[in-house]
Amino acid sequence: MKRLPGSEDMRAQARKRALEALDRRLADGEGGSDALGGLLSRDPEAAVATADAVMARVGRGTVRGHAGFRAAYVLAAAAALVVVSSLLTLALSGGRDVVEVHFVLAAPEADSVSLAADFNGWSLDTHVLERREDGTWEIVVPLSKGASYRYGFVVDGERWVPDPRSSILLDDGFGGTSSSISL
Predict the structure, then answer these.
(1) Which residue from 55, 92, 48 is spatially nearest to 73, judged by alpha carbons?
(2) Full 3-state SS string of 77-122
(3) Do 178 and 120 share a structural domain?
(4) Has residue 175 been placed in a domain?
(5) Is 85 in the same domain as 35?
(6) In a domain? residue 2
(7) Between 30 and which of 25, 48, 73, 75 could a Cys-Cys bridge form, CB atoms 3.0 to 4.6 Å apart?
């Protein structure tokens, strides 16, 4: 069977990207072997076998007169596999493993307080706390169970403050500390 130049490289790259995405989801606690009682296990070896089987079937197909389209079909099949897998993972998680976490900081002198964390890309705009009459600031954030998160408060857009209620403080790599929570 004649192969397109570079088609093996493209197939290997698509497989590598799909496996890296799977590894990230597994590291983030998404999916897992407990989903639907293990019926849809995210075992990496099974994922590789499935990807190989799909790629082998796609590789057998031809389009008469348009052999140059084979690589596009292979990439489209790999992308479809990744999309279906991601949608299935999201559907299975369905919010049943989410807990609402109440973050509070006493900062009566502050004009604004944000929650910067690994779960929001360290953004100051995603989770802005609300001020209460007693000078405390608070927000409730839904987070996935079975994971650990690093976070801290940013007061008035400049001052980093670890959570004084957190029992776990970690070196943030910038000479300060970050708070940590495990759910």
Answers:
(1) 55
(2) HHHHHHHHHHHHHHHHHCCCCEEEEEEEEECCCCCCEEEEEHHHCC
(3) yes
(4) yes
(5) yes
(6) no
(7) 25
